[in-house]
Amino acid sequence: MATARARLYGLLAATFDGEAETIAAALDRGSFAAVAEVFPIDIETANLRGDDHDADSLGVGYDNLFVVPGTHYVPPFASAHATDPSEAFESDSRYHTAGEAGEFLGDPAADMAQLYAAAEFSPERGDSIPDHAAACFEFMRALCEREAVLLEDDGSEANLDAVRELQARTLSRLGWIDRFEEAVASSDTVEGVFAAIARLARTFTAWDAQEVVQAERQPSETTPP
Question: What residue range is the signal peptide (predicted)?
Answer without folding.
Answer: none
